[in-house]
């Protein structure tokens, strides 16, 4: 069983998703929705989004292994797969240590979790792992369909594809602000990057591996860093930035459209879909 994500998806926090929005996203021509945050193990939201659409793929970005036992998520996976075969991708990951008091030995914990998913019949191609650093990226390649990196750049995508070779899935998230005023776009995008991510060790470490200095990561992030992590400008400029991931070797890229106060993103998604040349977006 292989889930077809297509080329372009939408990443949105679970609190901002609804069946109606998913139906609208599908109509615009996007081919996948990623449920952001740490959705609960019953996966009820994923099921409702699939119920409201006909071909849209739905993925979790991500189920946190510290919050949801493997047995619970496996049961939910099989329920959804039976109802909507080939349309759900289970994204799982370890989150970050600052958020979880029980965060110990994350690599070993993820291996044990994946082992249990194997025992419970969750197929390798039906799951993906959040990964940034080399060890986790290798685990994602070897024990799942591939990786769903968060808060990365096309340079990370390129190095991951070089590491993976052909075959394994690379499906990065990239933040988007549709505003061609750089100062206004940074004012909207910077808080989303700064809190919590620039205060979290795993994200800081990954950005430093990509060549960013400590000074770029402090005090809300340098303008250059924010510009790298938050695509902004006209719809065409943003579409070009998303396509850099595909040119660098990604199979799929999902846009997290940032709007003031988590406002309805459909207008911005329509403009972006048109710039990407999707479906009925025009």
Automatic annotation (TrEMBL):
Residues spanning the membrane: none
Gene Ontology MF term list: oxidoreductase activity
Luciferase-like domain mapped to chain residues: 20-100, 129-252
InterPro entries: Bact_Lucif_Oxidored, Lucif-like_OxRdatse_MSMEG_4141, Luciferase-like_dom, Luciferase-like_sf
Enzyme Commission number(s): 1.-.-.-
Keyword terms of this UniProt record: Oxidoreductase
Pfam families tied to this protein: Bac_luciferase
The keyword Oxidoreductase belongs to this UniProt entry's keyword annotation: yes
PANTHER family, per the entry: CONSERVED PROTEIN, LUCIFERASE-LIKE MONOOXYGENASE
Name this polypeptide is given: LLM class F420-dependent oxidoreductase
Organism: Pseudonocardia alni subsp. carboxydivorans
């Amino acid at each position: 069983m292989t889930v077809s994500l297509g080329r372009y998806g939408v990443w949105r926090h679970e609190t901002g998703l609804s069946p109606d929005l998913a139906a609208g996203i599908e109509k615009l021509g996007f081919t996948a929705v990623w449920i952001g945050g740490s959705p609960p193990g019953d996966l009820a939201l994923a099921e409702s989004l699939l119920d409201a659409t006909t071909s849209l793929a739905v993925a979790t970005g991500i189920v946190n292994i510290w919050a949801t036992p493997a047995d619970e998520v496996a049961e939910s996976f099989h329920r959804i797969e039976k109802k909507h075969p080939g349309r759900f991708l289970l994204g799982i990951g370890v989150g970050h240590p600052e958020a979880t008091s029980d965060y110990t030995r994350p690599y070993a914990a993820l291996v044990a979790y994946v082992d249990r998913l194997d025992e419970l019949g969750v197929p390798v191609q039906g799951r993906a792992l959040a990964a940034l650093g080399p060890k986790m990226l290798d685990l994602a390649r070897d024990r799942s369909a591939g990786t769903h990196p968060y808060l990365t750049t096309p340079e990370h995508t390129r190095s991951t594809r070089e590491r993976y070779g052909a075959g394994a899935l690379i499906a990065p998230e990239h933040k988007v602000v549709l505003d061609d005023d750089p100062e206004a776009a940074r004012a909207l995008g910077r808080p989303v990057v700064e809190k919590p991510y620039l205060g979290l060790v795993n994200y800081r470490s990954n950005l430093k591996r990509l060549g960013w200095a400590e000074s770029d990561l402090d005090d809300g992030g340098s303008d250059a860093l924010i510009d790298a992590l938050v695509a902004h400008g006209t719809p065409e400029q943003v579409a070009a930035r998303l396509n850099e991931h595909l040119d660098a070797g990604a199979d799929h890229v999902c846009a997290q459209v940032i709007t003031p106060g988590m406002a309805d993103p459909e207008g911005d998604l329509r403009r972006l879909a048109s710039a990407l040349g999707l479906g009925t977006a025009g």
